[in-house]
Amino acid sequence: MLGIHAFWSKPTLTGTQGHHLTGVDKFEMYDFELLHFTLSALFYKKYNGPIHLYTDNVFLEYLKLHKLTNIWDYIDTNKYNEFSQLDLNSTTNWTGFKTWLLGNISAPFLLIDHDNLIYTKIPNELFDKSVRFAHLESINPYYYPDKIDMDCGNFEFNENWDWSLDVANTCLLYFKDDKFKNKYSKKAMEFEVNNNPEDKHLAEVQYLFADQRLLVMMLEENSVDYGTFSNSKFTPQGDIPDFTNIGNDPLLSKVGFDHTWGYKHHLKEDYTARKVYIKRHVEMINNNFNEYYDILEPYFKNYL
Questions:
Q1: How confident is the model at residue 19 (pLDDT cuts 50, 70, 90)?
Q2: Rg (CA), the chain
């Protein structure tokens, strides 16, 4: 199965509402982020197939500087040049390029967030559904406000959408064909173009409606078959993260993925935690990609 990475550097440069991105003059990634990103590509190629990167010229030049362009099988910046014509607000829609890209490349493919890596072979049988995503999430009202509380300009909600449904975590997102994929991407982008709230809290969280909540609503509305890549469901208890087992599908149990997710914010601030995290990645390199040790060493040598 073709794997896809999508990376947009502009949110790092402009900063975002929330998510610990305050804006910088020159693009940089934390060493642990770049290490995880490259291992995501390497593990995917090892177990599941080719992986393509869609990005902008800023990040491409950054990869060239660090001699990492050969990690991916193909790198494209033309799609980003098309996307940039939308002039989307990167402070409130920092996953916007990923959402747009879904409607502008052909299925089938599996899109993988850059802070996620799959370290196993995905059983081919799991690509039977029209759509699969990482796992379900219970609705946390802080991150998923009710429709009546949202501020999204001229965006038109569909009265048939069920707001009681669980949410899709889209750090993994598979589409079998184009019809529904393109329909979802178009509607999600309609929202993001209108997602420019002045309220600080809404500016932080509303992107998640397009990025995750809308997907399940539209899948149900259109009677599209879908599934997940995990037997677990994210069931946070307030601010405390937690997972609940909701199934025992043996095929799903074979899928292993490591999503850094919100923990990356802690890693940016805690050197000890970052050292443990990076040492685990060095073990991955030693056990799987020893031929890349020298090229990746600059991102972990200070922690050994």
A1: low
A2: 19
Token pair listed for 257: 């993925």
Half-sphere exposure of 8 toward its Cβ, with a 13 Å CA cutoff?
25
- Residue 239: band (very low, low, confident or very high) from pLDDT cuts 50, 70, 90: low
Are 227 and 126 a contacting pair, CB within 8 Å? yes
Whole-number Å distance between alpha carbons of 169 and 143? 13
pLDDT digits (tens, 9 = 90+) for 81-111: 999 999 999 999 999 999 999 999 999 999 9
Instruction: Give the whole-angstrom CA distance, residue 64 versus residue 136.
Output: 37
pTM of the model: 0.96
Do β-strands 232-234 and 131-137 pair in parallel, antiparallel, or remain unpaired? parallel
Strands 109-112 and 167-175: antiparallel
Instruction: Give the side-chain half-sphere CA count within 13 A for 50.
Output: 8
DSSP state of 157: P
pLDDT of 21 higher than 80: no
Residue 131 and residue 225: Cα distance in Å, rounded?
A: 7
Residue 4 CA to residue 82 CA, distance in Å, equals 18
* 254 class by beta-carbon count within 10 Å (0-12 exposed, 13-18 middle, 19+ buried): middle
- Short-list 3, 99, 114, 21, CA closest to 59: 114
